[in-house]
Request: fold
Amino acid sequence: MKAAVTTKAGTPEVIQIEERPIPTAKEGWVVIRIKAFGLNRSELFTRQGHSPDVVFPRVQGIECVGEIEEDPSQTYKKGQKVAAIMGGLGRNFDGGYAEYATVPLAIVFPFESNLPWETLGAIPEMFQTVSGSLNEALEIKKGETLLIRGGTSSIGMLACQLAKTEGLTVIATTRNADKAQHLKDNGADYVLIDNGDIKDQVKGLYPNGVDKVLELIGIATLKDSLQCIRPKGVVCMTGILGGSWTLNEFTPMGDIPSLGRLTVYMGDAANLDKERLQEFIDAVADGKINLNIDKVFKLDEVAEAHAYMESNQAKGKIVVTI
Reply:
């Protein structure tokens, strides 16, 4: 089989196409014949060497969709459509950047769909992250105001759509004024051009602050996002689009406003179930959700896809098909 192997930490060019044996399944694992997978920012940081537990060379990829090739437990039939996410995939063991992968049963989710593989490949991790952030971390409710910091990311775009279906008012941000209309077309009620300091713009719309903030840029804007919430408002840090993991200085009694609440979402396979995944796939098929797939690459173009992701040009999910 072909695999896109991250040979060492570095620039996108460290990802090389190699021929490897097709894996075999051990007890409690299955072999998936991969049809597509989405790219994720966490994979960019792993490739750069910021995931200390990852040993190179490694086939990255924390998600994939495809068909069962082998299942010793006979839980699934050969050819059955499945998704796999997280659980060490692409980090502790080889992941989705390949024609085949062997994965533990615990992170496998069956589904039925006639959607194209490139569409299905965009779904698992994006849906798990958005659903978990909005419903489990932020506990959004109808009538609330939601600020999405990093609105043109694939997570931000889907979060806006799901929040609107739940009856929220959405403020989305972008650093690029040329993308403002794209956010409005996606359903945002307000679009703010983000220079890193938008609290005054937000308070101009909602003087007492917004109810909830989905922070996708990360620590670069986290302190400012905390100043955008109302008393007992919540900020959930889910993304690190800004590229930094650690705040050098943070003063809780000062940076967090009185009665403000800060949480994070670091979901995994346990935060997804096959019923919710199937419901979401059906909603996409019925045209109720637009996934905003930005660009589709082939397996031998994974290095190019990583470079494109790192350039921050994308206005949605990047997918690789096999």
Residues 124-137 form the longest helix (14 residues). The radius of gyration is 20 Å. The chain has two domains: 2-123+291-321, 127-264.
